[in-house]
Amino acid sequence: MEISVVAAAREDDSPVEEPLRVAVTADRLGYGEVWLGEGPTWDAFVLAAAAGRATGRIALTAGPVAVSVRDAYGIARGAASVAAVTGRRVGVALGTSSKRVVEGVHGRPRERPAAVLEETAASLRTLLHAEPGEPVVPDSGFRRRQRPPGGPLTVAAFGDRAIATAAAHADRMLLDVVSPEQVRALRAKLDAAAERAGRPRPSLAAWLPAAVDPEPASLEQVLGTIAGYLTVPGYSDVFTDAGFGEAVELAADGADRATLARVLPQEAAATVGLVGDPDTVRARIHAYAAAGLDEIALVPATAGDPAGERTLTALAPA
């Protein structure tokens, strides 16, 4: 099981500089890769460049970036630029994001998201490997001057069309906040899609909230993350089956995230994450591996644990 670290995930109330502190901590503790997500606060490529300059060796993955907001060439250029200024291997993760972000923040239409994801991934599969002297895009007349960024192409997927895109074009497929049972089902779908595409199956990774020996503030942060998924198809049933139907119903009625985090019991934090004492968390990691996950990307709770120091130290590579 590969274990990487997510320095910037979804928006929350943590300090703006916290992702850089998490990246530095992950590098110091010997993790091999850090993910720099994109949202209303941080541009993924700027954050990745800053993380690369602040660390010594860790590989960088920018994203997921929203394909409705960024074009394929801009994404490839961003990754190559980060690699050029950091001297580090840089990967790219793609996703469709949400209507709330694409339309509400960027003012761009979120139309045909699955089709745009497919088109962008297909283009990037070539663009990320272009060598100096080749056209930056076919028939453009401009020539590539930077080296390829060298990292993997990752596609965030959950629905069948996105899984097919990952199988056809990506090196890795990314899940977000999932249970081992969901991993098992999605692993089977990815394997079948890769067989249909005639390609080796991509590796399967998941962003999982993590808090070892959590403080109350850490649990609250994890529960706030989970609250955002209570109305998402494919997740609501998981939480209902786990005994959290009251929170699911409140979410469907429009309750805000703070209310939902108060209603969710502490046990909910372990349903789709790595929460508890070190032995409990390690057993949970084994359960994810048995379900077919190749890589866990730790999203460390930083409330009550600045830079995720306690959690990342407990789970650091030997």
From TrEMBL:
InterPro entries: F420-G6PD/mer, F420_Rv3093c, Luciferase-like_dom, Luciferase-like_sf. The keyword Oxidoreductase applies. Pfam families: Bac_luciferase. Its EC number is 1.-.-.-. It is an enzyme of class 1 (oxidoreductase). Residues 6-294 form the Luciferase-like domain. Keywords: Oxidoreductase. One of its GO terms (molecular function) is oxidoreductase activity. Signal peptide: none annotated. The keyword Transmembrane does not apply. Gene3D superfamilies: Luciferase-like domain (3.20.20.30). NCBIfam families: F420_Rv3093c. This is LLM class F420-dependent oxidoreductase. It comes from Streptomyces griseoincarnatus.
